[in-house]
Amino acid sequence: MKRTVFNEDHEAFRETIRAFIEAEVVPVHDEWLAAGQAPRDFYYKLGELGIFGIRVPEEYGGAGIESHKFEAVMYEETSRAGVSFGGSGVHVLLGLPYIEMLATDEQKKRFLPKFVTGEEMWALAMTEPGTGSDVAGMKTTAKLSDDGTHYVLNGAKTFITGGVHADRVIVCARTAAPREDDRRFGISLFAVDTKSEGYSVGRKLDKLGLKISDTAELAFVDVKVPVEDLLGEENKGFGYLGLNLASERWGIAFGAYAQAKAAVRFAKEYVQERTVFGKPVAAFQNTKFELAACQAEVDAAEAVADRALEALDAGELSPAEAASAKLFCTEVAHRVIDKCLQLHGGYGFMNEYPIARLYADNRVNRIYGGTSEVMKMIIAKSMGL
């Protein structure tokens, strides 16, 4: 079956990205792994390549293309090469939608040109120690000053991807107490300048996978945030957070499918080269059957991921459909990558092989952006259960 989701422009972009990865990422990727993050200047290179500005309007320096398909190509190409662009993914997937949805014209003029070039990298700070997925239970506060010129931000966040290199962080904080009938009320969003006094980056967290993605703890002690940096309206932040969940979950779903596809490629290449008992591992019936089953699962995941991508671009991806795509693609990736690692034998457990890194990186897909259990709750609710 011919795949129809991409056109000639996307394939030309694919060639550009593939060449960029070979020239700029592959030779230094091991150094990034050892350092636990990509260097800050790498994000300027992504900016120069136009990666950050694809969906940004032309008046702010972007390409003005209203589509996520170029991002989808990047998911496939980074997975194919077994590399990572570090924490830059959240810059576009999590940062840009909130600027697009909530920023005033004045804010867009301030934020977007630097967003496009990589001069200002963005992250989203929602999760707090002890609250996890319970966003409404957050303790971070932002109190308006007596003269009404700024908010005073106090609190802490954790698991913040891109948090080490971020120049602006969208911080979720309480500007009012929750109501008895609505504990979600009272949350607001702020575009916080990370150079502000009282803002600090704590530990760079040591994760099982995603080693090049800088994930950090953040702390705010009497941080002054100008009223001009409030995103959207006061106390309506919880609702805003829900508006971007469909695209975030599509991103995780498509990324997981791309990882599964890459795993089959890695395993196929390995079993054709590796010889045991006098013949290639690929010659054994079990190897053929296992890889055939993996390929069938990848084909199904590709169809689900592509369908969700088309719906997202059309503005028609519902929360339940996004949850279904995330649940299916991440569970497929879990099974496929595990089988492909098994086919590598002992070498699959060695970090020098991309399948080992893929195995570790993939695990979080069933946790962040909403756990698989939460996805099932959303789907069940949409079924009227």
TrEMBL record:
The keyword Oxidoreductase applies. Residues 235-383 form the Acyl-CoA dehydrogenase/oxidase C-terminal domain. Pfam families: Acyl-CoA_dh_1 (PF00441), Acyl-CoA_dh_M (PF02770), Acyl-CoA_dh_N (PF02771). InterPro entries: Acyl-CoA_DH_CS, Acyl-CoA_Oxase/DH_mid-dom, Acyl-CoA_Oxase/DH_mid-dom_sf, AcylCo_DH-like_C, AcylCo_DH/oxidase_C, AcylCoA_DH/ox_N, AcylCoA_DH/ox_N_sf, AcylCoA_DH/oxidase_NM_dom_sf. Its cofactor is FAD. Belongs to the acyl-CoA dehydrogenase family. Residues 123-223 form the Acyl-CoA oxidase/dehydrogenase middle domain. SUPFAM superfamilies: Acyl-CoA dehydrogenase C-terminal domain-like, Acyl-CoA dehydrogenase NM domain-like. It comes from Streptomyces kronopolitis. Signal peptide: none annotated. Gene3D superfamilies: Acyl-CoA dehydrogenase/oxidase, N-terminal domain, Butyryl-CoA Dehydrogenase, subunit A, domain 2, Butyryl-CoA Dehydrogenase, subunit A, domain 3. Keywords: FAD, Flavoprotein, Oxidoreductase. Residues 7-119 form the Acyl-CoA dehydrogenase/oxidase N-terminal domain. It comes from the Bacteria. This is Acyl-CoA dehydrogenase.
